[in-house]
Specification:
Length: about 675
């Protein structure tokens, strides 16, 4: 059975009891009527061989699959598990299998070896090998051919593992879909069998969940399963005595510790120390590239560039929608985290699929058009190109923000659990808030819940009344309901029914608040907390506010804006040069709104302590930004690590994006007015 015949059978079984004509199927699969009849004839012969002939029903020109969904699954499994004898591979599938065999074997493979596995002729195998060789050569990988011994890829182990990982990614499904193997795909079946993934995956997921909790990691669902996949490949290779020999790299100690913890959980004392150290280096190098694998409260500095770029994007959307997205702190934080993850995926040539793409494009067509028209801001500033999958994930963040603006007061305590990442989770949460009278306590990933729910069920019972999830949660100690993140009409009816049932079963709670009750935090404590927050206005004084200065060009404007920080010993002279070099290397992304430049650089180049200065130019200068030139104000910042510093930047950018604030800053007569303007708008 070839791929197209298999697809026809799968289509019929997926739509059991629905009748199709030959013409219907020929249009669906874009082949001739004659070809469809050949497919159906082959399917009938196969069913007769397996005593399942009653499953295909013909009534004149109408054909339908007469079995149940379960019988359809059983039939498809017979074909897949029959291997390449039952299933005739396409040329593309054969070449995929050949690549995998070459990557996982450290010994020569002969034409006869390939012939036995693929059930095809030596001539066909040799032609496929030639195509594989040409393709590998494009990636600087040489396939060695020895007439006596056969074919071999003579390459380092760490390269082989990376190539296996990349080969799996060419299947264009997520790591979770691949590992859960919920699709009938001959290539997936073959990889699972060759790498023994079913033996490793549950052990790896458990170890990774323990490590995630131990180090308080913040992992997206995609990255959790990407790391799981790589660890499965590592275990498969080391169990066959294939170890890496990696060169010493400059790897952050944090990733070394995380990797060592993970591998010791997986190996125990079954692997020699000389090998474990090499494996730790290999895994650490991979984890460093996973942007979402961050510990809580760390890596603030690297967020600043992305923070500014996201603010620039949100400024454009604010103009397009005539709705203020700039003050939505949750949107700024979540979208920045998503863009960092997106950027690292792009740089590592990793693809992501959005399973809700079609529904989003259908239901939010106008919103998608607005995002598409303004996506150039992210693409140009980050130097990447985004496809529909990536843009629809961004769309989910924007729609979530729009829903947040319309939300009602909530009551029933709900945990929202989603398997497809933080954008999907937030999207679903805001849709739920908008449509139902509930209180969403937490929004988490499915692996996070499953690793805790059945260990300490009493915690969930005390904290939540209901779990709304996008994936089944059998055996949960509290009520749960499975929905589509898009929320269909059927889902809405189902949720309303469940909410009514749960509400009736809840005990009556005592009133916990009294109208006009004095808050627990005293006025004095509140004032202290407010004063402890960093605001840009608190950094300003006469010496670092420069008004109506003449400059030659954008470079000199950055230097002049930054000099007060040098005089105050907030920075070194190297930092002035670094701010200019940042613009030369990365472009004018920091010109995030019309007339405003937020000059900064990596603090390692000379930040001594937190500082800020304000420069108003006599005549605006051009930085080379398409939309936001010329620049009237240049703010120079020296920022150290800390969430409070990001909060300060968030408020500063919001102030500068205000047209009213901009006008007042243009017309301010002295430094005191400048400080007062910032103070006024920071309170809003």
């Amino acid at each position: 059975m070839n791929m197209r015949t298999y697809q026809v059978l799968k289509y019929l079984s997926d739509n059991n009891l629905t009748s199709y004509t030959v013409k219907d199927l020929s249009l669906k699969f874009e082949v001739s009527d004659r070809m469809v009849r050949n497919y159906l004839s082959y399917i009938e012969d196969f069913l007769i061989e397996n005593n399942m002939q009653d499953l295909l029903y013909r009534n004149g020109d109408k054909i339908s699959f007469a079995g149940t969904k379960e019988q359809g699954e059983e039939l498809l499994n017979i074909i897949i598990n029959g291997g390449f004898y039952e299933y005739k591979l396409t040329s593309k599938e054969r070449q995929f299998i050949i690549k995998l065999l070459l990557f996982i074997n450290n010994n020569h493979l002969t034409l006869s070896d390939f012939e036995k596995i693929l059930f095809t002729s030596k001539v066909t195998v040799y032609k496929d090998l030639k195509k594989v060789s040409d393709e590998l050569e494009k990636n600087d990988i040489k396939l060695n051919e020895n007439k006596r011994f056969g074919f071999l890829l003579d390459m380092d182990e760490h390269i082989k593992r990376n190539e296996i990982y990349k080969l799996i990614k060419t299947l264009n499904i997520s790591s979770k879909e691949f590992l859960e193997y919920d699709t009938h795909n001959i290539c997936i079946w073959f990889i699972h069998n060759k790498l023994n993934l079913n033996i490793y995956k549950n052990k790896v997921k458990t170890a990774l969940s323990i490590t995630e909790q131990h180090y308080k990691l913040l992992m997206t669902e995609n990255d959790f399963y990407d790391v799981t996949l790589l660890l499965c490949i590592i275990l498969s290779r080391t169990d066959n005595k294939h170890y890496v020999k990696t060169k010493k790299k400059n790897i952050n100690e944090k990733y070394i510790q995380i990797s060592k913890h993970l591998l010791l959980l997986l190996y125990g004392d079954t692997i020699k120390e000389e090998y474990i150290n090499e494996e730790v280096c290999f895994l650490s190098d991979y984890l460093m590239k996973k942007s979402s694998l961050k510990t809580e409260g760390k890596d603030t500095n690297q967020k600043i560039n992305f923070y500014i770029i996201v603010k620039s994007f949100l400024y454009r959307l604010t103009c397009e929608y005539d709705i203020n997205f700039l003050n939505d702190y949750k949107l700024q934080e979540f979208l920045t985290a998503h863009i960092i993850s997106l950027y690292n995926r792009q740089k590592n040539n990793e693809k992501i699929l959005n399973p809700y793409k079609e529904d989003l494009l259908k239901n939010y067509k106008k919103d998608y058009e607005i995002i598409s028209e303004n996506i150039y801001i992210l693409e140009e500033d980050l130097g990447i190109k985004l496809d529909d999958n990536e843009m629809t994930y961004i769309l989910m963040h924007i729609v979530a923000a729009l829903e947040r603006m319309k939300q009602n007061i909530d009551e029933l305590r709900v945990l929202v659990m989603c398997h497809a990442g933080i954008g999907t989770s937030q999207f679903l949460a805001e849709k739920l808030k908008n449509q139902f009278k509930i209180k969403i306590e937490d929004v988490v990933s499915s692996h996070y819940v499953k690793s805790r729910l059945f260990i300490k069920p009493e915690e969930f019972s005390q904290k939540y009344d209901l779990i709304i999830t996008t994936t089944p949660l059998m055996g949960a100690p509290i009520p749960w309901i499975e929905v589509n993140p898009i929320l269909t009409n059927e889902d809405v009816d189902k949720i309303n029914k469940t909410l009514n049932e749960v509400s009736r079963n809840l005990p009556i709670k005592e009133e916990t608040t009294i109208k006009n009750k004095t808050p627990l935090t005293s006025v004095k404590e509140k004032k202290t907390n407010e004063n402890s927050k960093i605001l840009f206005s608190t950094l300003l004084k006469k010496e670092n506010i420069l008004l109506d200065k003449d400059v030659e060009d954008w470079k000199s404007s950055i230097i002049i804006a930054g000099e007060p920080l040098l005089w105050e010993k907030k920075i070194t002279a190297d930092y002035l040069r670094a701010m200019v070099n940042n613009a030369l290397d990365n472009g004018p992304y920091f010109v995030f709104a019309p007339g405003i430049a937020l000059a900064h650089a990596n603090p390692k180049y000379g930040v001594i302590e937190l500082g800020g200065s304000f420069l108003r130019l006599k005549e605006p200068v051009h930085f080379g930004h398409k939309k936001n030139d010329p620049v009237k104000f240049v703010i120079a910042l020296s920022v150290l690590e800390g969430k409070d510093n990001l909060d300060m930047i968030f408020k500063l950018m919001n102030t500068l994006c205000s047209k009213k604030a901009f006008e007042e800053l243009v017309n301010a007569k002295d430094y005191m007015e400048i400080i007062d303007i910032f103070k006024k708008f920071e309170k809003q």
